[in-house]
Amino acid sequence: MTTLSFELPDGTLQDVEVTRLLNAGYAGREQDEVQAHIAELAELGVPGPTTTPALYPVSPYLAQQTREVSVQHGKTSGEAEWALVITDDGVLLTVACDHTDRALEVHGVAWSKNASPDVLGRTAWRLDDVRDHLDDITLRAWVRTESGEELIQDSSLGALLSPDYWLEVLADMGLRDSGTVLISGTVPMIHGVDQFAAAWRVEMADPVTGLTIGVDYDVVPMPEPIG
């Protein structure tokens, strides 16, 4: 099992053994926009879901707090997201980047989600402490290119289905247990920015408290296979 460790705003540490990892997909709050996105992906050969929003089980060990993500080829990229982490003491909220194999995605979204890790932040907030202003929290991502960092996603938690929505889904499924981690689904990427980058950085910022949670990692190519 993977154990994640989070620093909370009061300085305490919370360790969580991940028993279940779930990735939400097509989880925008405006489902008309989601359907338009599905149509765009279909033109690229990505199969659409049978229902929206979608929820994909992912191997629990893919929940990681790492500075490097190893990849097998150049067609992988991250996605700015938030993550719910259910503990014995309540629900935590942190930032995440869902690294996805885009070449595999055309054969199956669920497969592509299991090809690379979900990278989570090392700090977290208690959901109860931010619930009354969740929609105001910003969610941004940058990629590192030869010319420096470039903004690729710029939105807020208000663009996505809320944590409470997903907590109800988990409860209905009998999955709202300590050790469950749910990743939110992502927000649109800025057109014209190359997502196949050497590094990703995601930041979630709370304008009320002034606190931020960030995650960043390098994308590291594996050696060429033999055979």
Automatic annotation (TrEMBL):
Q: Which SUPFAM superfamilies match?
A: FAH
The record's InterPro entries line, in alphabetical order, gives: DUF2848 (IPR021269), Fumarylacetoacetase_C_sf (IPR036663)
Q: Name one GO molecular function term.
A: catalytic activity
Q: What is this protein called?
A: DUF2848 domain-containing protein
Q: Which organism is it from?
A: Arthrobacter agilis
